[in-house]
Amino acid sequence: MSHSQPPTGEQPSPAGPPAAGRRGTSALKWGAAAALAVLLLVGAMLVTGNIAKGRAHASDAGAVQETIRLEATSRGGGHVTWTLGASSSSHDFTSRWSESFQRNGEVIMMKVTGDFGDPEAAVTCKIYVNDELKVSASGSGGQGLATCVYPNR
């Protein structure tokens, strides 16, 4: 029996298929890994967005139920300025002023001033939430000023 030898220049490859085939498999693995990474990133973004929406819903639900009442008093004449979020309002009053509304989560700021020429001037501001006093302040004298903020952040 004679053994046949491969023609010169061709050697049998004991390691398997040519290197080009291995390179294709490697590219396929990297492509699959990249696709998996993209899917994980998109999934994380969706979960994070849903959590944030849930928190916003929970805070909105609690905030809608709050009834706010602002009160200002002054010995003699007074002036009140208040803001709710980006809107503001001001009123001149004598002795006592009050206003009620529903709060939707905005910060409330209230400033009360009295008669700056009267050394006996006295002013107060009060913020009630669902009929519970949350903030109260007072000022007196010629520079009488009372400032209330809710919630204090």
UniProtKB/TrEMBL annotation:
Protein keywords: Membrane, Transmembrane, Transmembrane helix
Membrane-spanning residues: 27-47
Domain of life: Bacteria
InterPro entries from the UniProt entry: MmpS_C (IPR038468)
Chain intervals for the UniProt region annotation (Disordered): 1-24
UniProt KW Transmembrane helix keyword: yes
Positions with biased composition (Polar residues): 1-11
Protein name (record): Uncharacterized protein
